[in-house]
């Protein structure tokens, strides 16, 4: 496989973006500020009074909304991106000049829930998802295939803080899966009998490049947004990784047989067992986060291969490491609660599904590292917000998914109100800013003994590059131009610093919800005209009203928990 020569005095950063549904707005905000900070540092790096070590991103990977954000970021790198540093004059205004903001905050309409309740995706006996998700294809194509490409100042090269050939991947939950077998000696056969098993964990792998005739690395599909090379496959992959089961439409993905059979994220033994013969290979996929929602292990493996640091002890040691994984997780895991030992069917079904998904996502090889507080190889940006009074005293201090407005309803609340998405975008920017200043750092010993930071910070004593926490670490990405570390002031319609809305704003969806539920009930299966007439009567008189009431009550309770309902 072709390899870029490792660069001296370079620290490699791998980005892993977890699933988030509408809270992808938070991840987009994080990436917006990260790109801004790296751009600013590169402008000053090595000049008198500034650190000189390089920071380079060779790989980005993600699941679900995180995978979609990775691909949108790739498109933005070629088309150019202008950071959205402060809220727009009107929070309802759009910002097409920033693909991250336009794709996750603007979406296709200020009122997205009404769009998702439309029934134009349902035909007789043909239902593909609980919610109308046609808008997803519109956003993906808008980002990857611009309407007026001649008006775009295409970047001839990727930013210098990215590798010339950026590795990019999304996780997939491949419903058919890859079949392989193990041979067993059976009691009724003289021959070994195959025992068939399946691998449903899959990946779509790309290399973002500005080269017109790139040499293809085995297993990686060259992606060039300007020329359109593999853009359509990237669109399919983005929609496939974000296909939330049942709620959103399952997606097909076609890939060349060669790249599937040489997928770089599978080990050699697995690849030898799951070779496919169909070209192109077609798979039906649902949300990539269902099986692998935080693929930091895959990002880490690629970093180790790229940086050449094969020793896990060195990778985990601040004084020796030359790369690390930065994970963005809008929904960080929480300490488990007691399950309760009820044997009721619905309770057990829920616990069973939760256990299956949790077990599929477990990465045993990483458990010992995750439990080591001194491990240098992994960093996490997750939501936290503080509100201060006029004296600077913290009034509100919230961490985790409750800190984001898009966290309710399993991540779907952001589709109810654009203000929720605006808040989370700027919270992502703010959290990234504080993280880079205070937590993405190395201790004094690493500055002294790690060659990268010893050389990079040689002669630099300026305290502005140090964390403001008691640890006083030195910034891995020096914030060279940032002076304002406050959360931006926004005027929400609630009149508060936290976006809220009246319940009446949700009640207005009642009619659309009834129509959507009726269409789902009547078209899920094909039935004879007379039975369909009877079902229509039952649906009109009873079912849709009962279901609508139940759905609205669930929404109301969830929004109450997140304090998103005004005067409730």
Explain what you see.
The chain is α/β, with parallel strands linked by helices and 568 residues long. It is built from 18 helices and 13 strands. Strands 1, 2, 3, 4, 5, 6, 7, 8 and 9 form a nine-stranded mixed β-sheet that branches. The longest helix has 33 residues. It is globular and about 85 Å long. The termini are far apart. About 2% of the residues have low confidence.
Count of separate DSSP helical elements: 18
Helix-and-strand structural type:
alpha/beta
Largest sheet: 9 strands, mixed
Q: What does the oligomeric state look like here?
A: single chain
Could you tell me how far the N terminus lies from the C terminus, measured between alpha carbons in angstroms?
60 Å
Which spans have pLDDT < 50 for at least 5 consecutive residues? 364-372
Query: What form results from the Cα inertia axes?
Result: globular
Q: What percent of residues adopt helix (DSSP H or I)?
A: 25-40%
Radius of gyration: 25 Å
Mean pLDDT: 86
What percentage of the residues does DSSP assign to strands (E)? Answer: 15-25%
Number of strands: 13
């Amino acid at each position: 496989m072709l390899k870029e020569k490792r660069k001296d005095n370079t620290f490699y950063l791998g980005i892993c973006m977890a699933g988030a549904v509408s809270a992808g707005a938070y991840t987009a905000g994080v990436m917006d500020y990260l790109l801004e900070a790296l751009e600013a540092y590169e402008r000053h790096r090595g000049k008198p009074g500034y650190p000189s070590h390089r920071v380079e991103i060779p790989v980005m990977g993600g699941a679900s909304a995180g995978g979609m954000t990775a691909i949108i970021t790739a498109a933005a790198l070629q088309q150019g991106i202008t950071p959205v540093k402060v809220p727009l004059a009107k929070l309802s205004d759009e910002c097409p000049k920033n693909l991250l903001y336009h794709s996750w905050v603007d979406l296709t309409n200020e009122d997205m829930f009404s769009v998702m309740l439309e029934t134009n995706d349902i035909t007789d006996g043909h239902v593909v998802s609980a919610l109308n998700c046609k808008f997803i294809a519109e956003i993906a194509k808008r980002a990857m295939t611009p309407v007026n490409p001649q008006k775009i100042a295409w970047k001839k090269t990727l930013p210098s803080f990215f590798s010339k050939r950026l590795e990019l991947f999304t996780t997939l939950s491949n419903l058919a899966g890859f079949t392989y077998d193990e041979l067993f000696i059976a009691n009724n056969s003289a021959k070994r009998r195959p025992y068939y098993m399946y691998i449903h964990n899959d990946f779509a792998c790309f290399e973002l490049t500005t080269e017109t005739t790139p040499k293809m690395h085995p297993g990686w599909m060259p992606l060039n947004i300007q020329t359109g090379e593999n853009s359509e496959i990237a669109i399919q992959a983005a929609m496939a990784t974000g296909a939330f089961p049942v709620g959103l439409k399952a997606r097909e993905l076609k890939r060349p047989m060669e790249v599937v059979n040489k997928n770089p994220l599978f080990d050699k033994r697995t690849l030898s067992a799951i070779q496919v013969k169909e070209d192109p290979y077609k798979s039906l996929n649902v949300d990539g986060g269902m099986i692998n929602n935080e693929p930091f292990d895959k990002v880490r493996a690629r970093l180790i291969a790229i940086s050449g640091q094969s020793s896990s002890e060195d990778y985990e040691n601040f004084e020796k490491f030359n790369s690390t994984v930065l994970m963005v997780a809008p929904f960080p895991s929480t300490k488990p609660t007691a399950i309760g030992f009820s044997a009721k069917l619905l309770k057990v079904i829920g616990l069973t599904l939760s256990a299956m998904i949790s077990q599929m996502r477990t990465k045993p090889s990483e458990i010992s590292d995750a439990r080591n507080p001194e491990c240098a190889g992994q960093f996490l940006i997750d939501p936290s917000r503080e509100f201060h009074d006029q004296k600077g005293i913290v009034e509100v201090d919230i961490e985790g998914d409750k800190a984001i407005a898009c966290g309710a309803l399993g991540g779907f609340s952001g589709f109810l109100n654009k203000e929720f998405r605006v808040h989370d975008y700027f919270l992502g920017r703010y959290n990234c800013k504080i993280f880079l200043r205070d937590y993405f750092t190395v201790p004094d010993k690493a500055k002294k003994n790690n060659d990268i930071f010893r050389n990079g910070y040689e002669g630099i004593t300026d305290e502005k590059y140090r964390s403001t926490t008691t640890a006083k670490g030195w910034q891995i990405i020096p914030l060279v131009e940032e002076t304002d570390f406050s959360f931006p002031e926004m005027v929400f319609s609630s009149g508060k610093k936290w976006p809220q809305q009246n319940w009446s704003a949700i009640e207005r969806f009642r009619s659309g919800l009834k129509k959507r539920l009726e269409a789902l009930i009547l078209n899920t299966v094909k039935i004879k005209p007379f039975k369909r007439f009877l079902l229509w009567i039952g649906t009109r008189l009873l079912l849709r009203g009962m279901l609508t009431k139940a759905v609205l009550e669930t929404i109301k309770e969830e929004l109450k928990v997140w304090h998103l309902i005004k005067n409730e």
